[in-house]
Amino acid sequence: ADTSRDVSVKSSSPVLAAFKVFQQELDTRHDKYERLVKLSRDVTIESKRSIFLLHRVTSVPNTEEILKEADLKLDGVRHKIGQIAEELMGEDIYQFHRAYTPGIQEYVEAVSFLHYIRHRRLISLEEINARLVFCSQGAADALSPGSQVLTFHVTPSDYLLGVADLTGELMRMCISSVGNGDIDTPFQLSQFLRQIHDGFSYIGNTGPYEVSKKLHTLRQSLAKVEDACYTLRVRGSEIPKHMLADVFSSRTTLIDPEEGVV
Amino acid sequence: ADTSRDVSVKSSSPVLAAFKVFQQELDTRHDKYERLVKLSRDVTIESKRSIFLLHRVTSVPNTEEILKEADLKLDGVRHKIGQIAEELMGEDIYQFHRAYTPGIQEYVEAVSFLHYIRHRRLISLEEINARLVFCSQGAADALSPGSQVLTFHVTPSDYLLGVADLTGELMRMCISSVGNGDIDTPFQLSQFLRQIHDGFSYIGNTGPYEVSKKLHTLRQSLAKVEDACYTLRVRGSEIPKHMLADVFSSRTTLIDPEEGVV
Amino acid sequence: MSVTEMFGYIQGFLDVDQEIREDIRKVVQTLEQTAREILTVLQSVHQPSGFKEIPSKCVRSRDLFCKVRAQIADLKTKFPSEQYYRFHEHWRFVLQRLVFLAAFVVYLETEALVTREDVAKILGIEVVREKGFHMDIEDYLAGVLIMASELSRLAVNSVTAGDYDRPLRISNFINELDSGFRLLNLKNDSLRKRYDGLKYDVKKIEEVVYDLSIRGLAKEAESVGSK
Amino acid sequence: MSVTEMFGYIQGFLDVDQEIREDIRKVVQTLEQTAREILTVLQSVHQPSGFKEIPSKCVRSRDLFCKVRAQIADLKTKFPSEQYYRFHEHWRFVLQRLVFLAAFVVYLETEALVTREDVAKILGIEVVREKGFHMDIEDYLAGVLIMASELSRLAVNSVTAGDYDRPLRISNFINELDSGFRLLNLKNDSLRKRYDGLKYDVKKIEEVVYDLSIRGLAKEAESVGSK
Amino acid sequence: MSVTEMFGYIQGFLDVDQEIREDIRKVVQTLEQTAREILTVLQSVHQPSGFKEIPSKCVRSRDLFCKVRAQIADLKTKFPSEQYYRFHEHWRFVLQRLVFLAAFVVYLETEALVTREDVAKILGIEVVREKGFHMDIEDYLAGVLIMASELSRLAVNSVTAGDYDRPLRISNFINELDSGFRLLNLKNDSLRKRYDGLKYDVKKIEEVVYDLSIRGLAKEAESVGSK
Amino acid sequence: MSVTEMFGYIQGFLDVDQEIREDIRKVVQTLEQTAREILTVLQSVHQPSGFKEIPSKCVRSRDLFCKVRAQIADLKTKFPSEQYYRFHEHWRFVLQRLVFLAAFVVYLETEALVTREDVAKILGIEVVREKGFHMDIEDYLAGVLIMASELSRLAVNSVTAGDYDRPLRISNFINELDSGFRLLNLKNDSLRKRYDGLKYDVKKIEEVVYDLSIRGLAKEAESVGSK
Amino acid sequence: MSVTEMFGYIQGFLDVDQEIREDIRKVVQTLEQTAREILTVLQSVHQPSGFKEIPSKCVRSRDLFCKVRAQIADLKTKFPSEQYYRFHEHWRFVLQRLVFLAAFVVYLETEALVTREDVAKILGIEVVREKGFHMDIEDYLAGVLIMASELSRLAVNSVTAGDYDRPLRISNFINELDSGFRLLNLKNDSLRKRYDGLKYDVKKIEEVVYDLSIRGLAKEAESVGSK
Amino acid sequence: MSVTEMFGYIQGFLDVDQEIREDIRKVVQTLEQTAREILTVLQSVHQPSGFKEIPSKCVRSRDLFCKVRAQIADLKTKFPSEQYYRFHEHWRFVLQRLVFLAAFVVYLETEALVTREDVAKILGIEVVREKGFHMDIEDYLAGVLIMASELSRLAVNSVTAGDYDRPLRISNFINELDSGFRLLNLKNDSLRKRYDGLKYDVKKIEEVVYDLSIRGLAKEAESVGSK
Ligand SMILES: [Mn+2]
Ligand SMILES: [Mn+2]
Question: Which value does ipTM take for this structure?
Answer without folding.
Answer: 0.93
